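Complex 402.
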Amino acid sequence: MAIPPVSRADFDQYFTPNYAPAPDVLVEGHGSRVVGQSGKEYIDLAAGIAVNVLGHAAPELVAVLEAQASKLWHLSNAYANEPAIALARSLVERTFADRVFLTNSGAEANEAALKLARRWAHDHHGADKYEIVSFNGSFHGRTLFTVSVGGQEAYRTGFGPAIPGIIHVDYNDMDAVGSAVSGRTAAVMMEPVQGEGGLVPADPAFAHRVRELCNANDALLIFDEVQSGVGRTGSLYAYMDMDVTPDILTTAKGIGGGFPIGGMLTTDPVAQSFVIGTHGSTFGGNPLAASVALEVLSIVDDPSFLGEVVRKAGLLRTRLLAIGQSTGAWSEVRGKGLWMGAVLSGDWEGRSKDIAGAGFEAGVMVLRAGANVVRLAPALNIPDEDLEEGLNRLEAAVHSLG
Ligand SMILES: Cc1ncc(COP(=O)(O)O)c(C=O)c1O
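Predicted structure with pyridoxal-5'-phosphate bound:
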């Protein structure tokens, strides 16, 4: 059955009103170019919020998905399947981890990480060790546990009591984290670079201090690499460049290249607290998702691919700084790899939504990270000419508002 005719107005009629998407309905994408119902073509510098690492409809992923689609779609976790086993092994071989739990999204991966940390602390230290230390400005997803741990109060307001036992302190504040972590701490959860919080990187000394505090208090360090992972910063996972290794790492977004999948990675001793029956997911480990993710990892985790990410990141930063100069909208560009935020200043403060809207009008898709940061997270294989053209359109859009 073909999809019956639908319009952008139908979106507002049939969906719960918690989203406000751009005015066109997007129908097809190839590489870093997407076409809307209006017939207009957009350059995608958002990549589905840092998801489509190989662009839209990447031929390698289409081939893998089609092959798996005619073979085996779903079983449940009562039965093992080949793509999921191969994916878990691939993740273990490429990272610090010994074991993997597969999910469908970042929030579910974080939910699993937090539950595992509390269960591990309970098993090894008793019922009083359950506190989670996390950071103001952080984002970990939209389930009740993850909005409770996340450092953005707006996302937990009005949903009844948050999950108890969570302490929020300022990111990169050594003293504050030093007083928050104690013998009652089960885990510290942090993003190596706060993404939704505005592309704020952890100071290297701060990340080391958090690791030391976890060691000293027998608490687990959870790195949320849902947005920073899978090549985004120029290494497979951001921790690999930091000389700090977590006990638990969560991944999602980019790992499926656009197919929904996430995962929680951990060491063998910690994993032992997830004994049979303690946690689960109907779709986690789905063969379609796992086969795509296996292919994404094998393409991205290659020195020449990651080297190109770093080279393109240089182009992105230089051009963003030049746009900031020509428009006066920003002077600071933060972030790493193909993941950068232009920090609005002066009269432009608070206008990221206007800029994203004007960008779409001008034919480029960009993201926001709060009211004050225009965020770019293009496909990791975006052609140089598309990156250049997208940034030209962004510059024109900012000028049109000035
Ligand atoms: C760091 C981080 N963690 C978790 C999430 C939640 O992931 P999902 O939307 O797949 O549940 C996000 C999404 O933006 C994120 O950036």
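Residues 49, 105-107, 110, 139-141, 191, 195-196, 224, 226-227, 252 surround pyridoxal-5'-phosphate (CB under 6 Å).
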